[in-house]
Amino acid sequence: MTEQQHTNRALVTVDLDAIRRNVALLSARAAASGAETMAIVKADGYGHGAAEVARAALRGGATWLGACSLNEALDLRAAGIDVPLFSWLETPDTDFAPALEAGIDVSVSSAAELARVADAAARTGRRARVHLKIDTGLSRNGCPADLWPALVKAAAAEPDVDVIAMWSHLAAADEPGDPSIDRQAERFADAYALAREAGLNPLRHLANSAATLTRSDLHFDLVRPGIAVYGLNPVPQHEELTPAMTFSSQVVLTKRVAAGESVSYGLTWTASEDTTLALVPVGYADGVPRTLSGRLDVWLDGRRRPVRGRVCMDQLVVDCGDDEPALGTEVVLFGTGSEGGPTAREWADRIGTIDYEIVTGMYRPRVRRVYTGGES
Ligand SMILES: *Cc1c(COP(=O)(O)O)cnc(C)c1O
């Protein structure tokens, strides 16, 4: 690849101190009920960078890490991260041998998956560390209740398999009080009783971020917060979390346009009076959803300003009224919102999605990612 100039064209800045503080809050909540914290760093750390987030989370008090797939988990091992590490969603053609060799805990949802893990254990001579997953109502991954008694018996009978934990995932923990939460907790308790009857003594984990924040009775041995690690709050109540990701660019051109002139493809916005426009070189190829056209603000020179006309692939246009920002002035697309600027949550609300999708969508080849903090 050619030598790249590190310009601040499309820049994601990740505040590792914010991640450490967010995890400190979550792990203090968990510790209050005797639970440890598994920080979830799947999808490249929700778009923030898995290895960097993992190190910051461990400094904040996490003792486990969670990744979606074995490839993600192996990348963390390759980055030198040697703490307990769990990965839970593999394809039928995945070989579990590298997981066992790297000391990665794997999830098992079915007898067939158990057989494949046991086979890898026999081939490698390494004991497999398994977390059995019960489907308590999300109807996604996990063993259905009717197959669970056979699965726990089969797992208990496998000579090379250690059942470290049993676990499940909640469907609506972000709506505290939703009756599905208690229903899933009851099914989880029933499944635990069956595991004990089969002679197993597994750790238990169930809580995502929302349940870590709102349901201390469901913390069990380990909590699995993801989104809150990154400072995005999944529950209605206020929590002292700081969004870790800021997305910014800069002003590359300004121009005065006369009343009656229109802006960007389709000329969808027309100036009602003379105004100064600032050109910002980011667009939908950099993670600004085109569907935000006409309803997007940026933070520029200490205030919110509207983006006019359509968001293009590579650029957008900000209305600065009678202000004339200097070339190179920083433009914040979203960030902490602490001064009143836009947030990933605001983007999500405006286009009908969740902030999870906004931040995980920011890992793009054209977007430069830098880190601040993370020393202590
Ligand atoms: C993503 C995920 C989490 C974390 O969920 P958040 O809502 O981001 O806290 C926990 N467990 C599993 C199985 C997940 O897939």
Automatic annotation (TrEMBL):
GO terms for molecular function: alanine racemase activity; pyridoxal phosphate binding. This is Alanine racemase. The keyword tRNA-binding does not apply. It is an enzyme of class 5 (isomerase). The modification N6-(pyridoxal phosphate)lysine is found at K42. The active site is at K42 (proton acceptor), Y265 (proton acceptor). Its cofactor is pyridoxal 5'-phosphate. InterPro entries: Ala_racemase (IPR000821), Ala_racemase/Decarboxylase_C (IPR009006), Ala_racemase_C (IPR011079), Ala_racemase_N (IPR001608), Ala_racemase_pyridoxalP-BS (IPR020622), PLP-binding_barrel (IPR029066). Substrate binds at R140, M313. Catalyzes the interconversion of L-alanine and D-alanine. May also act on other amino acids. Belongs to the alanine racemase family. One of its GO terms (biological process) is peptidoglycan biosynthetic process.
